[in-house]
Amino acid sequence: MPFSPDYVRIVLNENFEDAKALFLEPLMAIHYAHLVMLHDTGIVSTEDARAIRRALDGIDLEAVRKVPYDGTCEDLFFYLEHQVVASCGDAIAGRLHTARSRNDIDMTMYRMRLREFVMELFEATVQLRRALVDVASRHRHTVYPAHTHTQPAQPSTVAHYLLAAIEQLERDGERLKAAHASVNVNPLGACAITGTGFPIDRDRTSALLGFDGTTGNTYGSIATVDYLLEAAGASAVALVGVGRLVQDLLLWCTMEVGYLRLTDGFVQVSSIMPQKRNPVALEHARALASKAFAQAGAIPVAVHNTPFGDIVDTEDDLQPLVANMFKDAVRAVSLVAVALEGADFDVEKMRRRAGENWISVTELADTLARERGLPFKAGHTIAAQLVRVRQDQPDASLSDIVSQISEEVTGTAITYTEDELATLLSPEHFVNIRKTHGGPSPEVTGAALEASRDSLGRDAGWIASTKTRLLNAEAALKAATVAMG
Question: pTM for this one?
């Protein structure tokens, strides 16, 4: 019975086009790997395996990509099956589908493509980390006013700020690597949902397809979707972090703040206002990150409260959303990385702002407690009153004010020279003395940056080794198909 023209137009045609774009190569690899395993286990004879291999070899992938959907088959799987049948006949071609189902084929395809998506996003986060490490290394001594609750709070450095983002991205990387490990196991062999009575070798197909191993329970191999949710969740966390960073960077690019200036290649001008220099690259990054975050949130919504089994909600209509989410996420993260590589900071303006609004006065309270033995509360009171008095008496001597207030608060006048107070209240002193692990002191941030460089090296090694394993698996699969004679 032919499909309804409306069903073809609304569903099947769209799914066919999506499958060609996303899953043609993984599907062909699965055909070859399954065929090799069937031959090696003796389930399919050498003669039949060779005939099927010749049929698979004869499929023109470029021609398949261009073929329109005509409604004569349900999906891409059946379209390719018809081509194999046309080449070697139904009796032989039918042996390729021994001990498998579209269910486990689909789940295997999805995982093969998803591991690529996760890897691409992980590589983008590494690219951004490398850009931030390079920028931070140039600005270990660049002081600026850190904000809390959107107000100037305490002096810090650009390196200290960026290291916070770098460390967050490092944690994002760990989450993405964990997601990759959850994704990169092979469900092929679970068949419809209960496995098979044939003596298949699931480890063989796993190795040929570049998986780290096989899934366990065959029901869960088809029914579970947590591996996808884990990947989407790790991506969403990374996108939130990058989006918050971009929001700050855009604020820093405003004329009113003026800390950051992108290179000309990442700004656009106005069609009517000739003075405008719009940092639109970062705006595009923010929009892409927000779009990808929304798509990541739509994935669990699509599968929430669906039956725990084989169900279309996790399949054809969901997979393009997954692909688009990762595409936009990679674009967002990569764009931030390249936009920052040549960006400039206004070091003098940042330093000047770091010396305003008494944001270093906490150090006076700390010094009084650390060097003069006062309770911190008393030091805090002296520092607070210093600010109020100096605002009322802008020409008064800081030394005199501190001496007077300290006597009122503690009963003993505490004296500092004007030069001592100028140093004590300078943003550079504030930063340099904060050598707490994770603090803004240049020597501390220098050590942290070295650790981040080491982390980059390890992750670059992980990327290279993971890609090498996939390439080796591809080579092994080709060699195994040839070895059938």
Answer: 0.95
- Number of Cβ within 10 Å of residue 471's Cβ equals 11
Buried b (16+ CB within 10 A) or exposed e, 139-159: bbebbbbbeeeeebebbbbbb
Residue with tokens 């080796």: 472
Percent of the chain, pLDDT > 70?
Answer: 100
CA–CA gap between residue 300 and residue 166 (Å, rounded): 28
Distances from the Cα of 423 to the Cαs of 384, 389, 403, 405, 417, in angstroms?
18, 20, 17, 20, 10
Condensed to tens digits (0 to 9), the pLDDT of residues 176-194 reads 999 999 999 999 999 999 9
- What six digits make up the tokens of 233? 């969740």
Evaluate whether 360 touches 430 at the Cβ level (below 8 Å): yes
Among 143, 142, 75, smallest CA distance to 109 is for 75
